[in-house]
Amino acid sequence: MQRIALRRMLEQFYMEDIGSGDLSARLISDAGDRQAVIHAKQGGIVAGVEVIREAFALLDPEIRVSLRKKDGDPVAAGETIAELTGRASTLLTGERVVLNLLQRMSGIATATRKAIETLNDPSIRVCDTRKTTPGLRMLEKYAVTAGGGFNHRFGLYDGIMIKDNHIAAEGSITAAVAKARAQVGHMVKIEVEIEDEDQLREAIAADADIIMFDNCGPDTVRRFAAIAPPHIITEASGGIDMRTLPAYAGTGVHYVSLGFLTHSVTSLDISMDIKPARTNEAATERQEI
Asked: Is 96 a catalytic site residue?
């Protein structure tokens, strides 16, 4: 994750949640530091631990964060992800934003890991799409990598994808690829989305860098992958879910892109508990003795 971008995102999230001030936190006594624990309430894959550190540092640099898990680590129900020490009011003010992001990112990482295991074919890479939550793309795509997956293009600016409407507007795959090739540098890849064998062969002749088999079943993907020359990267996408994913193993395609990793994932259940005041006081007494 790009740390400067993360801090700017967190500033916006806090402005939305805190507004002119946390009214509930004003009820809390800040006499002495308090301890809090962020822990999983269900098993999965952790993603977003740096969000914990950056988010609380933004509110109060004196908050101490001790991470017990790193991104990509498995976590069981009841296991600790991080321990925090600092002002109770600050811990409570930052809690919801931190948990919302951590839960969402860990849910994506968990789904990605499950998809890789479900596909069960190391020769095929599982990747995401641009079907991300507006404003959260950097974090959601990072979470995919934490789960062991790979990123597709980040936006319209870092890769060309010639889809059906582009082909219709330009007249043909050949014309669209030629026009794209004439306008971009050698570092920009050109992907063409195809739906049938005629389009596949036209995309090959046009020398596309990547060819996506859109909404094609596993048998069709296997046949198309065999036709595509080795130097062209192939991708299967569209209509693939956890139930149908295993059928794409052994098809010879290089990538399977899955929109559900980000657009309809279930967040991992994660909670934060502040330790009761008496626990902290007892610990202080023991240290003094």
From this structure: yes
Out of 163, 189, 223, 275, the active site residue is 163
Among 8, 41, 70, 96, the active-site one is: 96
Give the model confidence (pLDDT) of 187-208 as tens digits.
Answer: 999 999 999 999 999 999 999 9
Cα–Cα dist 54/106, whole Å: 17
Residues 229 and 105 in one domain: no
Average pLDDT over the chain, rounded to an integer: 94
DSSP string, 84-116: EEE-HHHHHHHHHHHHHHHHHHHHHHHHHHHHH
Residue-range definition of the domain harbouring residue 70: 3-114+267-288
Concerning whether 79 is annotated as a catalytic residue, the answer is: no
What's the confidence (pLDDT) of residue 279?
47
Same domain, 110 and 132: no
- pLDDT 10s digits, 84-112: 999 999 999 999 999 999 999 999 999 99
Residues in the chain: 289
From the candidates 193, 202, 222, 235, give the one annotated as an active-site residue: 193
Confidence (pLDDT) at 104: 98
Residues 178 and 213 in one domain: yes
Residue 214 known to be catalytic: yes
179 is catalytic: no
**pTM of the model as a whole:** 0.92
Which has the higher per-residue pLDDT, 281 or 260? 260
Angstrom distances, CA of residue 194 to CA of 164, 212, 263: 8, 6, 23
Does the active-site annotation cover 163? yes
